[in-house]
Amino acid sequence: MRKSVVLGLAVALLVSVVGCASIALEEVSGETEAVTVRAKDGAIAVGPFRYLSTDWLPIGQAWVWGDTPEGQQIYAVVDPQGPVQTCLIPDESRLAGPNPLSDGSGCAGISYPSFTAWVHLFSGETRQLGPAEGLLPGPKGDRLLLFGSGRTVLIDIGTGMEVEQPDIPAYRFPYAGAGIQWVDEDAVLIQEWENDRTGVRVAKVVGAEQVAKYTVPGQVLSPYVAPGGAWLALLAGPADEAVVLPEAVFPIPVGRTLSIYRADQTQSQARLAAGAGRMISDIIWSPDAGFLAYVEAERMLIEDAPVPELAFGDDGKVLLAAAPGFECVELPLPNDRIWLPVSFAPGNRYLAVRAERTGEIMIWDLVAEQMIVPPVELAGGSLHWYVADTIFCQRCPTDAWLTWHVPSGKLQQVDLPIGCDYYWAGEHVSFRYSVAAGATVPAFGQLKEGEWLLVYPLSP
Fold first, then answer.
1. Containing domain of residue 13, as a range?
2. Separation CA 180–CA 188 (nearest Å)
3. d(CA 428, CA 374)
4. Is-contact 327 321, C-beta < 8 A?
5. How many folded domains does the chain comprise?
6. pLDDT at 395 over 80
7. If you placed Cys at 64, which of 54, 206, 223, 327 could pair as Cys (CB 3.0 to 4.6 Å)?
């Protein structure tokens, strides 16, 4: 049974990580030598590490991976309601980086220089998968694609059964897995841009069969898969205009036309074209896949910059297209600057847009079909939707955290750490926080010197 955090409880859990452990947030144990887990008022701290990587899983749990001051490599998953699960990565299978399993059951990764893939589960099981130059866990966390030895295979993590994938390329390191993304739990999308292989394909991993192929002669295709995998938008741009940044595999995603398909069909549902001298870019889907927003604007190639770039001109617009017909509506924005779509609210009612140069923010109400002007304090800051109608924003240059309730216009300041990397997950925010000796941290006071994962609950 999953346990919940007891509000107001301050606990320090110092757990010797040998194998795997599950730590309920209400427990208190004596001091030992490894990772510390502290909880207070719904906030959680895990550390210290010499360095760490972290982000959120789709199921609303934060993962953290890194080396402790004692040199142990640890992977952990933090459920904000408890428990915290930890797993020691043995020396013989130390990973170059974690590939979290999306169901929170553990992680996979590759050990270098042996180029051997491993799976580490919180159940305590460690399994060697064999030679690999890259891997890509599936959306449910129960299987993964393994790239290596000139082949691609689908591996069932539970049974170890392998299925060859002849339609999925096995590029060599460091590009193994490049251009491949899951459409749903049974299909992947493959983007190709190499010599005579230019286009996008969709292939089933069970049965290992190709189900759709999209190519346009002389065009580079950039794919945008809608949430849930029902729709696929393909941005097409002339290959002779493609701009590829150093070390990048694919060109910058800009194009002249945007074609929208049902994910298993090759007949387009809609085709959207840019006006003369304009290009399409900055494409985003709404969470329910009911809307697509993008920019149509003049773009100019800056060739004498340190890195070639496609800069915006002075004329552009944000367009909103609604499924299933995808007829376009231009948003009524000031036309003296370029605006970019930032994100849709979780409830799909609001779309946030930002001015490209000034950082100003505007909110389009899709139901009332009107523009809402936020407080000036939000301009220039990072922007995230907390719930369907509330925005959290880190204001620059002060770094103060603000919350703004869109319907009422209520603006508040929130006490959260500043000056560190943060990661967003709806009702929680996490930080990779470097604690100096003697420093204090909001909610926890003093913590040991080193890098910590901090998780805080949010309330609108």
1. 1-89+416-460
2. 7
3. 23
4. yes
5. 1
6. no
7. 54
